[in-house]
């Protein structure tokens, strides 16, 4: 299994490409769609789906461009179903001067904590609200890889001062689902460097 971390847009939001042979999953295409497409073409990958950890503007900016170019579906939790179409919910109205993001609806809405099988990839879906109501984390158990979005970062956790944020809920999500994963699980956050569960338990001040 191979992966690439591509920081995109003014907030340098991490987009990830997870590939197995030629099949590829795209996580959070935040912006700079042409740059992302160029990289995918260079690596001769075949994207089969887009997984969104949540629907804040900095994680969805290139969503329509990518899914239309490759004709692939996008997955999002049901609680943020309307966020893709509503600039006031996805934050673009407040944070992007003169620019409001309105994307097409997600192709598939996630609801239950279950296994999500896409081609040769099998993810465990964790509902991890707190940063936003519909935040989810995708766990590839076979490779001990966790795509946490803006829930857990290296030495930090997601902000909870945005609409729908809840600090107590965020910490419950982390303690219930993430810190009990295998210590060598690699954490792929929405911003900043990758880390591990072991390192976060040892050094993250929010987890003490």
From TrEMBL:
SMART domains: Lactamase_B (SM00849)
Reported cofactor(s): Zn(2+)
Domain Metallo-beta-lactamase: 12-191
Amino-acid biosynthesis among keywords: no
Protein keywords: Hydrolase, Metal-binding, Zinc
MF-aspect GO terms: hydrolase activity; metal ion binding
Protein origin, superkingdom: Bacteria
InterPro entries hit by this protein: MBL_Glyoxalase_II, Metallo-B-lactamas, RibonucZ/Hydroxyglut_hydro
Zinc recorded as keyword: yes
Organism listed in the record: Peribacillus psychrosaccharolyticus
Record-linked Gene3D superfamilies: Ribonuclease Z/Hydroxyacylglutathione hydrolase-like
Highest classification ranks of the organism: Bacteria, Bacillati, Bacillota, Bacilli, Bacillales
Classification via SUPFAM superfamilies: Metallo-hydrolase/oxidoreductase
Entry protein name: MBL fold metallo-hydrolase
Pfam families, per database record: Lactamase_B
């Amino acid at each position: 299994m191979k992966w690439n971390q591509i920081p995109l847009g003014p907030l340098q939001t991490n987009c990830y490409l997870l590939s197995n042979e030629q099949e590829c999953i795209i996580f959070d295409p935040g912006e700079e769609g042409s740059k992302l497409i160029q990289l995918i073409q260079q690596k001769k990958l075949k994207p089969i789906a887009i997984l969104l950890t949540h629907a804040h503007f900095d994680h969805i900016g290139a969503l329509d461009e990518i899914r239309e170019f490759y004709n692939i579906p996008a997955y999002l939790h049901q609680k943020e179903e309307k966020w893709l179409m509503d600039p006031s919910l996805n934050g673009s109205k407040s944070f992007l001067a003169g620019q409001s993001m309105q994307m097409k609806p997600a192709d598939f809405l996630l609801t239950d904590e279950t296994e999500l099988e896409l081609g040769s990839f099998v993810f465990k879906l964790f509902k991890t609200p707190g940063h936003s109501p519909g935040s989810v984390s995708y766990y590839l158990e076979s490779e001990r890889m966790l795509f946490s979005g803006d829930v857990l970062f290296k030495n930090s956790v997601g902000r909870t001062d945005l609409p729908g944020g809840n600090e107590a809920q965020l910490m419950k999500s982390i303690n219930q689902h993430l810190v009990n994963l295998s210590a060598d699980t690699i954490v792929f956050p929405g911003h900043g460097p990758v880390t591990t569960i072991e390192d976060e338990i040892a050094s993250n001040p929010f987890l003490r």
